[in-house]
Amino acid sequence: MAVQKSRKTPSRRGMRRSHDALKNPTLSTDPTTGELHRRHHVTADGFYRGNQVVQTPEVSEDDDE
To answer: Where is region (Disordered) located (predicted)?
Structure first.
C-alpha cells in the first residue's frame, strides 16, 4: 500500500482543491421564444436553435376535475 513520505501542507491541499469548485451553467436565450436554456440543449418548449424539434403535448387548464 502506498504511503506518503511527508505530510502535505494546507497550502498544497488548497492548491490541489482550487479547481474543485462548481461553476454556474452557461445559459443562452432562444431566438424564437426568448426562453433561457442551457447551451446545446433543447428548451422546455421543444425548440433548438430557433427550430421546433420536439412536439410538446398541449396541456389544457380545464382538467381540474
So the answer is: 1-65
